[in-house]
Amino acid sequence: MRNTFGNSLTITLFGESHGEAIGVTIDGLSSGIRIDEEFLNSMMDKRKPKGTISTMRKESDEIHIVSGVFNGYTTGTPLTIIINNENTISKDYESTKDLARPSHADYSADKRYLGYQDYRGGGHFSGRLTAPIVAAGAICMMELKTRSIKIASHIKRIGNIEDDDFNFEKIDTEMEKLNSQYFAVLNDEAGEKMQDLIEKMRNSLDSVGGVIETVVTGFPEGVGEPYFDSVESIISHGLFSIGAIKAVEFGDGIMMSEMMGSKANDAFRIKDGKVITTTNHNGGINGGITNGMPITIHSFIKPTPSIARIQDTVNFKTMNNETIEIKGRHDPCIVHRIRVVIDSMVAIALTDLLMMRSTTLTFNEEHKS
Amino acid sequence: MRNTFGNSLTITLFGESHGEAIGVTIDGLSSGIRIDEEFLNSMMDKRKPKGTISTMRKESDEIHIVSGVFNGYTTGTPLTIIINNENTISKDYESTKDLARPSHADYSADKRYLGYQDYRGGGHFSGRLTAPIVAAGAICMMELKTRSIKIASHIKRIGNIEDDDFNFEKIDTEMEKLNSQYFAVLNDEAGEKMQDLIEKMRNSLDSVGGVIETVVTGFPEGVGEPYFDSVESIISHGLFSIGAIKAVEFGDGIMMSEMMGSKANDAFRIKDGKVITTTNHNGGINGGITNGMPITIHSFIKPTPSIARIQDTVNFKTMNNETIEIKGRHDPCIVHRIRVVIDSMVAIALTDLLMMRSTTLTFNEEHKS
Amino acid sequence: MRNTFGNSLTITLFGESHGEAIGVTIDGLSSGIRIDEEFLNSMMDKRKPKGTISTMRKESDEIHIVSGVFNGYTTGTPLTIIINNENTISKDYESTKDLARPSHADYSADKRYLGYQDYRGGGHFSGRLTAPIVAAGAICMMELKTRSIKIASHIKRIGNIEDDDFNFEKIDTEMEKLNSQYFAVLNDEAGEKMQDLIEKMRNSLDSVGGVIETVVTGFPEGVGEPYFDSVESIISHGLFSIGAIKAVEFGDGIMMSEMMGSKANDAFRIKDGKVITTTNHNGGINGGITNGMPITIHSFIKPTPSIARIQDTVNFKTMNNETIEIKGRHDPCIVHRIRVVIDSMVAIALTDLLMMRSTTLTFNEEHKS
Amino acid sequence: MRNTFGNSLTITLFGESHGEAIGVTIDGLSSGIRIDEEFLNSMMDKRKPKGTISTMRKESDEIHIVSGVFNGYTTGTPLTIIINNENTISKDYESTKDLARPSHADYSADKRYLGYQDYRGGGHFSGRLTAPIVAAGAICMMELKTRSIKIASHIKRIGNIEDDDFNFEKIDTEMEKLNSQYFAVLNDEAGEKMQDLIEKMRNSLDSVGGVIETVVTGFPEGVGEPYFDSVESIISHGLFSIGAIKAVEFGDGIMMSEMMGSKANDAFRIKDGKVITTTNHNGGINGGITNGMPITIHSFIKPTPSIARIQDTVNFKTMNNETIEIKGRHDPCIVHRIRVVIDSMVAIALTDLLMMRSTTLTFNEEHKS
């Protein structure tokens, strides 16, 4: 439903880049989740622009939990987070409001909202709206952590510079390292090269995209639904809400499309009294339902559309060809900042899936006894 | 909601492979859509196994519309389609019911449904359930066709054999050609090679995957919602309901993640009094909302997991390592059959998006006057 | 969503009175509920017309469960029930199709479906559609019974003839008696008078309405949500789906509106180590959430609109005043038949509420430990 | 979904009585509705306590629209309203937190939220949460007014003192009068008596309930859905979200249950080229769908549970019998204040129904042409 996501757990997003505030309401949370403010702030921190590889616009993004928390624990009633907009430079948006910035939503939004949209700084379409998503994701992670479910992502690629692959022999250590980093890579040397590339992009008034690889461990088997609430359906629905993501892959989905079945199939085995698969091309999901192996996801991120070069465009009111020079403070790359937004959307989707599962789990466990 | 998909238009799927019947209920349809049975049957026909490149199991898949149609037109009340299961060979499923077929849902379904699932022929997880999806998609296409919206797909790749790219100069002709084909390719020579590869897979008791590329033309601009009902979110949600699809890309999403912004951005121009973009890397969608350009989608399909070779697996009841030899009649490749399922899911998703849009469109148009 | 009801458990209704079939899909059921066919048939039996107090049209209403049940237990995948239409007399509906039967949906449906609705026998608006609701309710009751939750209703009033009030000292015995009756009353003498009144109505070509009082025992406290999923919201939403119901009261809602707070408040006390209230004016619900006391509901049912007298009406196509004489076999009273439909809707609503509750219950119980 | 209501238009409610703020998010609004602040404030004003017939607690209830409005018009993106909590007297809630106030949600909420609920002043269950509902209703009314749809309510009864019935000959004048009143009655003398009774209740440390009658004119025919989105289902779902309402009647629903069909049926006639009914016992709704006649609703309101007398109760933590004396500033009657909350819920429900209808209306109208 438009700006609401989820079934048993829902988040509702609101706000515009240059309005009074942005925020999110989370409904369906359990009662009694302890709010870990330090963790919440550390998540918000990963989304903030830092150094010369990001925009110079600084936002404090201070979190106000205005409902749903009492004495430090979730009550179970809707938890609403408000983030006030502060650092909104009053530049002349009026003069360029009918010019469609290439690869931005200005034109499509004008058709959708018939000219009534708030066009300042992208309005409701601004990347700023990912801040409340991170806040909501952090709350969900507090829940997931009590069940030993872990989520971590690394920057698999920026432009054509690749990070190492995960080593599942020491996945816990690797995930911990990533979750302590602002620029999350497994191979620090690759990380340096990526940041150099981003700097180069900034200097040439250009931008660059990349790939985020996410892994989830400790997630129980038997969660998900066969068709429209498959784990892939729910997670991709959430991920494609993030404007910059234009492709999503589960497991080795793209590579599998070139493989023969005899190679692509993940053989089942018993290991330490538990069912595992010897390979994990399916990324922990069979038939839309988790099988207990790590869930793996690749999100493909397009280069930031805001670049400082002069670009061809149209005035969609006068219907004339024009050029546009986007002023202001922009990110030459958002891959490293979008990482925590992806972690958050995955956390939200998985919490919802777990809760949906519990509707019938409770019933059945009683049947058994 | 589990087996229901959609907001303003919903489809609800039901049935098991070896149960009495499978089917679908479509709710929220307009009144007065003429039911074109010939078109409906031609769609069903594209999903059927044909020749030696498909399974030998033949199903008549006869459509029974039991409600929601009167005098040849949709009434607007729920339209339910029933397809009886006929050709169910009573082989001994009992003996292998606790063996997890690799890359199938047997194990994850057992954990989800606690041993109560219908395990015969994949049960609710069977590819047979895509038949009612095609029927529902055909009904939605009847609606879309009245507004000159067209959908077509080709087999972009099987294994490593590629079809030509679309030529948007003559896209109408190409789409028409594809929609008249059972094995849908733009380059017939490539098509021959693909079919040879599939035959080879069958002979070596193996299987192969591939890629379907879908294009939608004539879809109006300004449809979709900024976050959780973005066009990408809704379409991917539907596509990932199809078990074999493990990656979905909009526009040139994967390639864009390697591009610089100056190359990836689609410049706007006025052409014939209409806003267009000179390139279409974003696949017709900006900020989750259509911009009037063709919508383009790639679906990555894993090789059929059912292969006739002996494979390692486990008995998930006794918790022992075992081997399995999957008997029966299987598809060495389902890419060509899944093509029409993808067209159908896209049609369903787009009809829903159009209807969601109309909730506010009507209101606003009156404001203007 | 139109013909779908529920959150965690959903039912989707379809069919027309003179179409091929009517039916329902139930999704979100637990796996492993034993299907008690005898009980299911006994429920269907209570809805059937019997004797001279009901319509002469007899329907076999044979239940076909076409999916979601395997080896006698629910699988947990969608359970679809089909009931074929058999006894459809092919009278000339064509000639009266543009005449609006008073208090029926003919006119409003024509405006809603723009002339495309199936007008034969009320089409989708026919009381026949309550048959699948009863079937779905019976399935939900199988679940509720495993947790000792009981539902029973009596005919509190027909016209102005009243049945006795419940005696909560011996409520179990009374509920059992009611559930074994076709014409459910506590006072058999009152029941006789009611049936005499119905006969009298039939003879005078008239009809009569009444009130059904429902009681639910054994339902746990702490179920429901404060605002839009309050127990009253969910149950009334379901009950008002039944066309003949025009008012719904929880507890002593109507009487309470005349009382002073000092009399209307239900005092809490401890009894046998359990919290109870000394009166139950609130009908077991405080702030939208159950408090463990019996849930009590009154449904007010209008007289059957189909009467054999000549009535004033309009032809809504020619827009002329006309008269109409409704031919056919009609119920002079449906209160006794609607009783089991109400029990069923209440069962469906309460099963959904229980499942919604369990999404967070599971989580929390783990927190406690 | 818990604290979210609606299909095509949704409202999401959040906040606790003594938390930082309460509020609501409205999603699915049309773009371009002019925000009439004066009207919004006049609606908020009707809900405020005034004079000696209400609580002495005064709240400014200042509306902050933090998103979804730009240059005085709705954008079409989520509109969030925040109302800060100000006048929260820090009395010792701690000492009585485990005592269940009779007919309040304290006990049921404790079972629902497992002790984590914010118990101060009723928390999320406080009547304060109706303030954002009124704000949302006011926004919806701005939309409805552009289509000449009008809503008004009067206090039909307080205790046993009755107001006059509507006179539909001069309904426009009567509705206008009501909408200009704080204590909305048709007969001012009856209004005086009602207020005297309320004063009497206050003096005797008691409270009193009543009935609100609502009428909607100008609402188009053909809106609503046959079963689960019937007009009665949607409106009652909304109304029963208001804690004090324990019964809801459409048309003359209660009286109809005592009538014969020949009297209860509303005969159709043509008047001024339009289809009308000569009586309106069905309250403008046939088969769940509007027929163009005025929609009429009665809401039955229980007496305020907070009375200053000593009452029997339990301590639900120690499980002992206790007495409670509720301190503070309470309403001896909330019927007059709840009037505008009912108008608002009806406005929200009807706007949603209109928008749902438009999903198919648009389609069909194009078919016709």
How is the topology of this model organized?
Four copies of one chain form a homotetramer.
Chain A: E1 4-5, E2 10-15, E3 21-27, H1 37-47, E4 64-65, E5 69-70, E6 73-74, E7 79-84, H2 106-113, H3 130-145, E8 150-158, E9 161-162, H4 171-179, H5 188-203, E10 210-217, H6 231-239, E11 245-250, H7 253-256, H8 261-264, E12 268-271, E13 274-277, E14 285-286, E15 289-290, E16 295-301, E17 310-315, E18 320-325, H9 335-368
Antiparallel strand pairs in A: 1-2, 2-3, 3-7, 4-7, 5-6, 8-9, 8-10, 10-16, 11-16, 12-13, 14-15, 17-18
Largest chain interface and its two residue counts? Answer: A-B, 114 and 114 residues
Sheet with the most strands: spatial strand order of chain A: 1-2-3-7-4
List the helices and strands of chain A in order.
Answer: EEEHEEEEHHEEHHEHEHHEEEEEEEH
Number of DSSP strand runs of chain A: 18
Biggest sheet details of chain A: 5 strands, antiparallel
- Name the overall outline of chain A: globular
- Multimeric organization: homotetramer
Low-confidence stretches of chain A: none
Strand content of chain A: 15-25%
The radius of gyration computed from the alpha-carbon positions of chain A, rounded to a whole number of angstroms, is: 21 Å
Give me the secondary-structure category of chain A. alpha+beta
Distinct helical segment count of chain A: 9
Distance between the termini of chain A: 38 Å
Global mean pLDDT of chain A: 94
State the helicity of chain A in percent bands.
Answer: 25-40%
